[in-house]
Every structure is written in structure tokens, then in C-alpha cells.
Design brief:
This protein is mostly helical and 563 residues long. 64% of the residues lie in helices and 5% in strands. The protein contains 23 helices and 7 strands. The longest helix is centred in the middle third of the chain and has 28 residues, at 215-242. The mean pLDDT is 91.
Length: 563
Amino acid sequence: MIDNRQVSPDSRREAFWFFAIAFLVLAAGIGLRAPWPADEPRFVLVAKQMWDSGDWLFPHRGHELYADKPPLFFWLLGVAHVFVRSWTWSFLLPSLVAAMATLWLTYDLARRLWSHRAGLWAAIAVLAATQFLYQAKRAQIDPTVVCFITLGVYGIARHVLRGPDWRWYWIGCFAAGLGVISKGVGFLALLALIPYALMRWRKWPGLPDLGRHNAWRWSAGALAFFGAIALWFVPMLVTALTSGDPEHRAYLHELLFRQTATRYTAAWHHTQAPWYFLGIIAGFWMPFSLALPWLFPRWWQALRARDAAVWLPLGWSLLVLAFFSASPGKRDMYILPMLPMMAVAAAPYLESTVASPWFRRLLMAMVVVLALVFAGAGIAALTGNPGFETRIEAERGLPLGDDKLWWLLLATGIAMLVACAWFRRNALKAAGWALSLLVVLLFSGTAVLLDAENSARGVMERGRELAGTATLGLVGWKEQNLLQAVGPVEEFGFKRPYAEQLRVGISWMEMSPETRRLFVFDGALDACVLREHAVRVGTANRRDWWLLDASAIAPECRGASAP
């Protein structure tokens, strides 16, 4: 059953304006900041070292191999750098492209299943979700893996719901493989075949006839899936097994076992209760989650009617929720791949849902409360001395008495309230304008105000100013320190204990005390350091940094007497 729906000129115009607005909202702030922790500096550093070294098979963090993630996202960061030869301008581009592609896939699948309006509402639901907006404006792997998983389910759904379309089925399987070499969980897209098989077995109506004697076509999907993985895995495996380098074998073991199976079955951090993700959906998916009370009855009716177009994406989403809930280790972004397909399953009902007076009241109340929180925080900080003001200014390295951040919060809150007042008769327009202003003002403003401290750029520039032309040896460093380092720099391992880094760093500095200095995290200082001879450089990411020359090393820790 081939979909022959035509898009009218008016529909094209609506889609164009939606995607233009989405691009402006998602692209706001690009180029205004460097990578920020927790993950951005790590990923950009790995990509930069790949670019500088030409080794695209084995990611490195400093001198050490980095086996936490497969390399595809780092390759995409490198591709972005080809077109924009500035890491500051290029590092957010893969997330931007992935987010825009995810919105288009959501729109187009819902359009093919129902109508242009349904597709537009599904894409709006994804774009408006808080978690999607936040992740799309970060250089993390999640927007990219969400895009590949969404493409995977999109391709499979086009085949099994509006097919036969074997080419899209194979593209979907290939995209799932690309998702695997992005973050390992790309295979989740293939779970869409489970609800389809159940529906076919129970003879649900409306499923297209995909023909008989197609075993080889179905099997070709597995070849496409493993072929995508093989693009990286085969050359990496051959190199690891034939190079004779024990680090390569250790990398292989770490990536395939500890960072996949062990991380899922026996996670060593981020442990949460089985119901953790229900709270994430309720809170982090707002305002889309506000529609759930209206959607649950409609989904139940669709189940009773055996509507495959609704329940294939919804059933797949429930499988993904069960998969991540079964693991003890949980982080809020893990279930983000569910969001586009949940929106597709909601698509035929969203227009009537948002027309409900009660939904509009809830939506307007949510936006007004959010605006009052921002405006209230700004007023409290500007007119008084609340505890959160002192804490945030200290944590973010803001000068005492510098109120720019609080004026930004106040301006953002006021702008949102003005939008709500101007469009008070239309809650949808009010919420759209208010949330767009929030994202553009807040992300762009904080990028300018907080970048020097959040990226560690300021403290690294200050360290270089104090050290002159000397080589800086980093002790207790984070990825942002190495990424933002100015001039010659050395490091002594990332995973190595601080005490050992300091011991090796002292020996290194003693080899050429006139031309070498140590740049040391406060938490790595021990009895070997004479603090009265050390120079405090500054604060970045809530960590204090010190500059040491040979005179700051205690006599008992020098030379042959070093511990």
C-alpha cells in the first residue's frame, strides 16, 4: 500500500515556517560559547585529537585510549570541522542537524500515516518538549543517536504500515546500525518489528500485504544493520588484533564488555528506581506531557480498534521504556528516543487535545508560572541577597556584585509575561512565543555570560599568562582544561590517581625547572606542595587551580627523595 498523499501549497507553507522557526530556536547561541561540561569538552577533545593525529579508529583522551563510546559521533564532529574550521562554531552543528532531521522524520511519518496537520502537531510536540530542546542545544551524543533510532523506526514503519517499501526497510536497518556505532543502543530501532509481528499474528486490519517468499529481503535488513556496524568495527577489530599493542586489546575489551553488557546489567553509577523514567516523562517532557491525560483514553480506544498506525510506534515506545527501566543505571536522556514515536502515536489526537479549554488553561498556567519563577529569581537577586545568588555566583566564578545574570533572568521572565499578556486570548500562540523567547534569550545570554568559567577558557588563559612561555603540566585535569589550554602543555594521564599524577609531574618539572610549571587542581595538592609558594590561578567548574614552580615543592619530595 503506497502512500500517495499530496501536500498542498498551503501545507508546504505551514511546514516551511515551522521548520524555519525550529531552526532559529535550535541554532540560537551557536558560536557564542565553547564546549561545557559534563560531556561536551570530552567529546570535542576526542574529536580534536582524532583530527590532529589522523587516527580515526581509536579515540584518545590525552595520552589514554577512550573506550566509553563508539566513534561515529566524533567522526561527525570532525566532518562539521571540515566545513567550519573553528571548534567553537562547529561543535554544535551535528546536534543541530540531528534535531532538525528528527523533527522532519516525525512530521513526515505522521503525515504519511494520517495527514499534514497531524504531522505538524507531532513535530510541534517534539520541539516543545523541554528535554528535546535542552539536548538539541548540547554537543552530546544523544541527539545523534535519537536521530538514527528515529530514522530506523521511520524506515521500518514506512515498510510495514504503508508498504511494501523494502528500500526504506533496509535504510531503517542501516540507520539502526549507525546508531550502534554512535552509542550502542541503536539496535532499539529494530524492536519495532516485535509489535508488527504480533499485529500480523493477530491479524490486525490495515496492514499492507508485503508478499510471500521474501525471506531474503527480510534477511537483507540484518545485512544492512551489521554492514553499518562493520564500517568501523571490522577495521578496528583487525587493527586491535594485529597491531601487537596491548592498549588496543584493552580498548576492545573495555568497549565490548564493560561499557555495554556490564554497564547495562550491573551499572556502577546513576542507579535509580525502576519507575524513575515515569517522573522524567511527566516533568522533562512538558508541555507534551500535559496532553497525556487526554491521550490515554484515545490510545485505549485505538487498542480496542486494533489501530496498527497508532500502536506500532506506541508499542515500540513501551518496549524502549521497559528496556531502560530494567537496567539499574538510569539517566534522564536515555528515554529521549521514545519521544518522537510517542508524538507520532499522539498525532491524530493532538489537534483536538490542544483545542480543549482545560488543556489551554494548563498550558498557559505552566508558562506563566515559569515566567514568574525567572522574573522572581531575578528580582530577588537584584534587590536582596538570597542564598542562591551567592551560591551560583561562587560556583560559576561570577564577580561579586556583577548582576548581569540576574538582569538576564528578569528580562527573560518579563518577555515571557509580555508574550502571555499579548496573546492572552490564544494560549497556543502565547506558549509558543513565550517558550521560544525563553530558549533564545536564556541559552544565548548564558552562553555569553558564563562561557569563560564553564568552558575553563578563563582559567586556562590566566594560567598561560602567569606561566609565560613555560610548558604547563596538568595535574588533576578535566577535559576542558586540555581542550582550552593555550601554548605548550603536557599531561600525566587522566584516570591515574591524583597523587601519582603529582609525583610524575614533579619529576617532569625537575628535568627542566626553568621552562616547566605545574597547573594543579586544588584537590590534588598534598604535603609535597608548599602553598605559600604556589600561585592561585582561579576557579573553573567549581574547582580551584594553582600554578607551581620548583620552589613550591617541599624539599623532602624533590629529586631522589621523592616518595
